[in-house]
Write a structure and sequence with these properties.
Blueprint: H1 2-18, H2 21-27, E1 34-43, E2 46-55, E3 66-72, H3 78-92, H4 99-112, E4 121-127, E5 131-136, E6 139-144, H5 147-158, H6 165-171
Antiparallel strand pairs: 1-2, 2-3, 3-4, 4-5, 5-6
Pfam families: Chalcone_3
Signal peptide: 1-24
Protein name: Chalcone isomerase domain-containing protein
Length: 176
């Protein structure tokens, strides 16, 4: 009985993701991907979003394509996302990032991210050797052909020095 119930839950979850607007856009870039891991980003008990990492390869590395899907539980302004993202990319950088580069990255992120509301889904696709693509609710918003940007952006979640080490472990499938 428990096995049948668990199987039903898994089928339901897979079906939900397969029809998710963000994943349907990302799926075009990663046709053979499987879910590597999932978790939530919460601060002081308030969860901002649920995250899932998808890739055709495990373990995920800088040489493998992957998609990071974020389903928002709260509203966030695009301006806040861009500002926080730039701050984190600078914090994680091994050396200072040139102002010209930061300004270009800020413009790329402004194209990619508008305001989000509860239920909105954002998907970023990391494409080795090509850069990154960003989708909002299944619609392509930005294609950024800059590998340095792509590595720095996804490092916000996947760098060993991320501010969310528990979420990182869950995304990489390292935690139960």
């Amino acid at each position: 009985m428990k096995t049948r119930h668990l199987t039903s839950v898994i089928v339901c979850l897979v079906g939900t993701l397969a029809t998710s607007p963000a994943w349907s856009g990302c799926r075009d870039a990663l046709t053979t991907a499987h879910r590597v891991g999932a978790g939530e980003f919460c601060v002081l008990g308030f969860c901002l979003y649920k995250a899932e990492l998808w890739s055709p390869h495990t373990p995920v590395s800088a040489d493998t394509p992957f998609a990071l899907v974020l389903k928002y539980e709260r509203s966030v302004s695009g301006e806040r996302m861009v500002s926080t993202g730039i701050d984190e990319m600078q914090r994680l950088a091994p050396r200072p990032i040139a102002n010209d580069t930061l300004n270009a990255w800020r413009e790329d992120m402004q194209r990619a991210f508008g305001d989000v509301s509860r239920g909105d889904e954002l998907c970023g696709v990391y494409l080795p050797g090509r850069g990154a693509r960003f989708y909002t609710n299944g619609t392509l918003k930005a294609d950024v052909p800059d590998m340095a940007f792509a590595r720095a952006f996804f490092g916000i979640w996947l760098d060993p020095n991320t501010r969310a080490p528990s979420l990182r472990r869950h995304l990489l499938g390292e935690s139960p």
